[in-house]
Amino acid sequence: MLRYLIIISSVAFCFAGCTHVETYVAQKLTAPLRLQLDNLPDSRQDYYLEVLIRCSVPITDSIKLKLHSLHVETESIIGDICTAQATADGIKAATNLDYIENIDLSQKRNLNGL
Questions:
Q1: pLDDT per residue over 56-87, tens digit each?
Q2: How far apart are the first and last CA of the chain?
Q3: Does this model's pTM top 0.85?
Q4: Helix, strand, or coil (residue 86)
Q5: Residue closest to 103 by CA, chosen among 24, 12, 44
């Protein structure tokens, strides 16, 4: 009996450890980001992407903590916009938050040409 209990709890633990996000709000992602996420192999779901996030409210510490719990690490924050590094699953999970309006791939720009 104890052996079955151990096997069942091991299986439950394995499923609890899986955090792959199946449902997300695709309309909150720009087309280039959706394309990148769709082409990312399952083995690279933990790879961090540079993104730009726009919220419907100013980004507070509680929003930063929630995003952090989803593996979205905020960097520069100005009002309701922030840059972040995020996993594919973190990006998808963030789209389910009401205050997230849009997520885009961050674009690096050469500022020497100004």
A1: 999 999 999 999 999 999 999 999 999 999 99
A2: 72
A3: no
A4: strand
A5: 24
Residue 69: φ, ψ to 5°? -65, -20
Give residue for tokens 């790879």. Answer: 47
DSSP 8-class letter at 57: S
Q: Does residue 42 contact residue 79 with C-beta atoms inside 8 Å?
A: no
- 74-93 burial, b at 16+ Cβ within 10 Å, e below that, comes to beebeeeebebebbbbbbbb
For 1-114, where are the alpha helices, taking DSSP H only? 2-17, 31-38, 61-69, 88-94
CA proximity to 79, closest of 53, 111, 98: 53
Backbone φ, ψ for residue 89 (5° rounding): -65, -35
